[in-house]
Task: structure prediction
Amino acid sequence: MNDPLAARIRPAQLSDVVGQRHLLAPGKPLYNLIESGNIPNLIFYGPSGTGKTTVASIIAKKTNRALRRLNGTNASTKDIKDIVSELDTFETVNGVLLYLDEIQYFNKRQQQSLLEYIENGKITLIASTTENPYFYIYPAVLSRSTVFEFKSVDWQDVVPAVKRGFRILGEENGVKVTADDDALEKIARGCSGDVRKALNSAENCFYVTPAENGEKHITLETAAQLTQSSSVKYDREGDEHYDIISAYQKSMRGSDPNAALHYLARLLEAGDLPSACRRLLVCACEDVGLAYPQIIPIVKAAVDTAMAVGLPEARIPLADAVILVALSPKSNAGEAAIDAAMADVEKGNYGAIPRALQNKHYDGEDAAVKGQFYLYPHNFDNNWVKQQYLPDEIKNARYYIPGKNKNEQAFKAYWDKIKGGK
Result:
């Protein structure tokens, strides 16, 4: 009874696992692998509470290998050596199935220490991670494993698990448990696809609800009080963080203010004001840019205001700025131009600065032609005169190509007129 509800009602067969039908429905690759009993090295990648540990436990029961568990947050190289020392003993005659949770916390040397044994089959590795394995897992381990991605569970699929949890709690405590439909929905939605979190909330709701005549009734009010702080799944160092800020900027770039406000709300609910502000400034420069250059100081002022007043009031100037960026005309011509220029510099495509532009007013004795010959534009009509500014090696390079928006086309028309085709 001391174990959390999620551990007490952990499914014992694949058909009881919540969600993950793309992996576990009959006929799907992972389902077929498990049913075959021929288990390769596996890596389960996905958010917390989506069934990775549950599926690993089911796999362990279907094999006749000795099950060993380690957690990357606290396991050491010595723990691995201890498991290795058990190989080829009476207890591990058929080998070891090692379930390594949070493998991303293992360093390269710790992961390398497993290579020999997972390759010769004496250890079958099932590793789980909440981070992208292609970034966090040593390539040699990754190449010897099959990766399956677990996804956040839809709230509709969480509801049956919550009902089952209440039923088990009632049976354990000798009371009948009922719950309002909207309370079940609140708990299921509030877990953000994390079934473990939903069951923890359900257990809390059960214990704070008093029994009357041998019955406990879970109301929406109780569910709201105990799930409100669990509504946002967010880790500033994890994939969820980068997914949200990516969706935030892409929604502004795509001129969808509703989606942009949604992702802004998720950032603010998680208290990540700096990321919301930084990405907003980047988007104003990168995606609107020269199509509406006045937007940059406007957004900067909104960000300064937000940082000055803090949350929750910061949401107001940021919402204004996000809507403005989303609905403004777009141009990435400035970003494309500097990227092209930097690419040339990185490749070494540059030469001596033209003599006319150098910061000196004398020539050495070796100069074939003496004199700076700089033409001061303000001494000419329209404050412009044709002269070479780029080094000889790239004198014809063109980095900036005007966008097709009204603003940049007006600039282009003006300069075409001034330069007169020169």
